[in-house]
Specification:
By secondary structure, the chain is of the alpha/beta class. Helix content is 32%, strand content 30%.
Length: 199
Amino acid sequence: FIIPKNSGLNECKDLIKDYLYENLIEVRGEDVPLFVSELSKQGNKVIGITGEDLFKEFTLRNRNIEIKILKRIILNNENYIFRKPSLCLLGPKDKRLDDLSENLKVCINSKYKELAKKYCMNFLENKGYRFEKIYVSGATEEFFSNNVVDLVIDIVCSGKSAEKAGLKIYDKIFESDIVIIGGKNEEIWLRKLIQNNRK
């Protein structure tokens, strides 16, 4: 069972207790799909748990994969703006997207490079906007608050850090639940784990 070690995905660890499986491997949440995919290719019986956003990003980067979502765990956290983590386009709180120039700098959390690229190309660039994209591993809001970029694309939960940086949500790109992933042969194994745990 591959589980995420990111503090932001602690909910995954709490949920995994339901399955009482002892052979756990901890990796970063964004690496869970790759680990599951590679171990599955080697013929190992393997399942993982991570954010749906991270799994979607992995599938956009890797088209011919043999793993899929085996079970979706719907999040409903009343402390989150959309009741679940959501990838959003953020901009200055005192403006609207229409108020901004057509040539913009956008800071994107590199974990969401493909999701952001698809959104920018399919939606914003079709509206006439052009982007200089800056990919970072974190601190996206600091790039905005220090006047390096005009917009930010990152995950929003409570929205407090975005608000503190002077940002507001312009658009929701992708809502993320928690997903258990694995190969098609792992569906039966997962069902057995769930049934055994209910006894």
